[in-house]
Amino acid sequence: MIAELGHYALVLALALALVQSVVPLVGTRTRDPVLMQVASPTALVQFVFVALSFAALTACYVTSDFSILNVAENSHSQQPLIFKLTSVWGNHEGSMLLWVLILAFFGALVAAFGNNIPAALKASVLAVQSWIAVTFYLFILLTSNPFARLPNPPFEGRDLNPILQDLGLAIHPPLLYLGYVGFSISFSFAVAALIEGRIDAAWARWVRPWTLAAWMFLTLGIAMGSYWAYYELGWGGWWFWDPVENASLMPWLAGTALLHSALVMEKREALKVWTILLAILAFSLSLIGTFLVRSGVLTSVHTFATDPTRGVFILAILIAFIGGSLAIFAWRASSLKQGGLFAPVSREGALVLNNLLLTTACATVFVGTLYPLALEALTGAKISVGAPFFNMTFGPLFLPILLAMPFGPMLAWKRGDLLGVAQRLVWAYAAGAVVAAAVYAYTWGGPVIAPFAIGLSAYVIVGALVDIAERIGLMRLPLAVVARRAAGLPRASWGTAIAHLGVGLTMLGVVCEMNWGAERIGMVKPGAVLSLRGYDLTFDGTSMREGPNYRELIGHFTVRRDGNVITVMEPTKRNFAAREMGTTEAALYSRGASQLYVSLGDPSPDGAIAVRIYHKPLVLLIWIGALVMTFGGGLSLSDRRLRVGAPKPAKAKSKTALQPAE
Question: Which H helix or E strand runs over 386?
């Protein structure tokens, strides 16, 4: 009965979405306020019904109702409760239900908190959002029904895919989806603005918080997925340039560019064409990521579905929304007013340079990811595009971004003083040069480029600190004045500097791990000692342990440094009988931001067991940097200026941004 209620609630959500997708638009065309006001309550009730549907599926998993096909294929009665919950979205059908839940959630947020948005624009935004919802409701109901019943229910379920039975998977997909689907709001604002003919600084003010929130969630989602792959798959790597990983990186790059472009549009009413296009592209790339995961064109630990009929349906959604939005954009683009002018050397100019480099990097990842798939589809030939290609093409594009990053926030709007900013960044240059020289001397004979990259990271980090120091007058004004200026500094300014600092930390971790990580692989028997980077690991033997729905082999290693015992590490190999699959659970020991990593391999007939040991210097900075970036985004999002009124244009006479071409 619960399953039928969930299915019925999803059908009602579809009916409401159809109403929401049509009636408000009719209201905007006829200027009927009553019809326009239909959008908000409909969006709120639609969310309630989707939430009921999701709750119903969750209840089926918690109670182990194996008469539901989806539950029988992805759960087990002995699973811990946390993994019964993650099983809800650890499969294709449930993950799509989570997708539409988040989609409806964002629509409800706009309906509830978008009171400062003009009625016509708000109605159009919610209508466009509902167009997306309708297509995905139909996709679920026609091809991916999570409530389908089995005529002969099994006594026990098949269990969740073992590699997904991890706490990281309780966090990673929802965060990633909040980012993916969050960009749908930016997309809806862009299409609605093109339809309504209102694209100005106020529009940028309204769209920027939603874009920033989506960017924050996507940053966290990518970081969590990276850390999960790092410790769960047992390979010791944190990024593999897997096509599905790239599918989340591409909208992140486009969203980062959109954030910077919207800032220029808000302050100077410039880059309107570019901002609208980026809003469309960010969500379009999210849809492409959905297609890659669920179409069956890829085989990956990240993919959910291999049914080609679903792939065809999603491909039709791609064509409709990407093609349709770009067609509307082409129709309106010629009518977009240019907006404020600015000199090449200005904050606007720095942001434009940033956008060009980010979009070029995004295009590089796009081509490297999709070209092999397109070639195979057209000719049947298979080629492999892996880490060497991406490292050699994507990496150099980030070099000028990092060099320019400290300059941007310190340049003035409209016309900046490049020499003056360069003089104020002297401490950043000094820090970068000293760190690079010290690392080069310490690692004499090692990688040549790596010390330069470390120095560049230090330059970015110190540059972010110099930006704040200059704004509050540190070392120039009395401490009491500095404290008052620091307290009065807009949170968006703090957020920008902290986010840039996070980028520097992440790069520092990436460079150190890639260039100075060490590895030791061997076969060990009890009593054997493996040494790596001053750590001596004594293998004490193995033991077996029964888990709730698995049996695991545990390796015991006593870790010594300078003869002193510092910890005991216990990597495991788990075997899940229901799925007849196994997983590797690495053991991690953190010392500062560096980690010792131990992973078990397969045992041999003579009683020895394979083991991999890694030392990863400063590897935790990769994810700490992502958390710092997200914290910076949160500070910016909390800035009151993003939640009230529309900004005053740079020139009082600038009233509109979209007018018919004459």
Answer: none
